[in-house]
Amino acid sequence: MIGERIERARQAAGLSLRALAEQVDLSAMAISKYERNEVTPGSDVMLRLAEAMGVRVEYFFRQDTVELQNVEFRKHAALSKAEERQILADVQDRLERWHDLDDIFPPSAEMKFKLPKGLPQQIGDLGDIEAIAIKLRDHWELGHNPIPDLIDTLEENGIRVIVTPYIGKERFDGLSAKVNDMPVIAIGSEWPGDRQRFTLAHELGHLILHGRLSEELNEEKACDRFAGAFLVPGEVVIEALGSKRKWLEPRELLLLKLEYGLSIGGWTYRARDMGVLDKTTHGKFYGFLRKQGWDKQEPGPAYKHEASRLFEKRIYHALAEDWVGESKAAELLGIPLAELHACRNMECSSDIAH
Ligand SMILES: [Zn+2]
How many CB atoms are closer than 10 A to CB 121? Predict the structure, then answer.
């Protein structure tokens, strides 16, 4: 129904009834009536609403095609309910567009998420997670190299990744959910790339480890261990740092961060987990980082943001093959038709902005 869609678009835009009413020059009561399907807005009101909420009018008429299940937020307690709703509404909108695209251009069988064979049923020790991370890397044919585009890797292996605008600042890292058995991971767009990658790999850890951990193990810690081991396998840690060290240089870790997309902090934990630093030295080294404030804000150049490309790639593929018209393509991309023309002429404003 149109009413629910208006409400969701409003939440996605982070607007209260009153704020929206002011923008479109109506009363909050009138909007509330639209949302409860008591009154259907006329086409000029629909246009004003769409403009104020940053959606296209088609959005209001789209069928609900996507139901998010098992939603788990990775957040700090202070994330407000309104922010949660705003994030969920945006994720839902992007998943609906994905769903529309799947109808036009169905995903291949290889793009279905599958766990590697032979995973242990019961994991009793955090150290066992190292081998599981390697197993998944082998399954996805990643070798031991740095993973340049983690989102691309996840998407090609059947995990739907949504990059949502920076809502709830410092309070929202990401979320995981399911849509028709397909795993979904959403992350905030503005976190540094290394932090986004850790969140993605941590959520991947939940997909692999959930239900396999013995009672003594904490799932969050296990997923952190998985994330580190997946981003930088143990062998690589030892190759990069040496098997035994008495201290580490922050700049050495910065260079490794830029190579592997794992934070400086993350590298110190890998060093400890692989026995390169003993526990006491790791504690001292971490204390040294904390003293400089480098545990909160890492020094040196940032690792590039992760971006999702598969959705856009598949739309242009579908355009080239005439499986989709330009107006539908623009709607799926959420851009004006003129912008789509510019993009087809290789003059996308998003490329110029970067
Ligand atoms: Zn978690």
Answer: 6
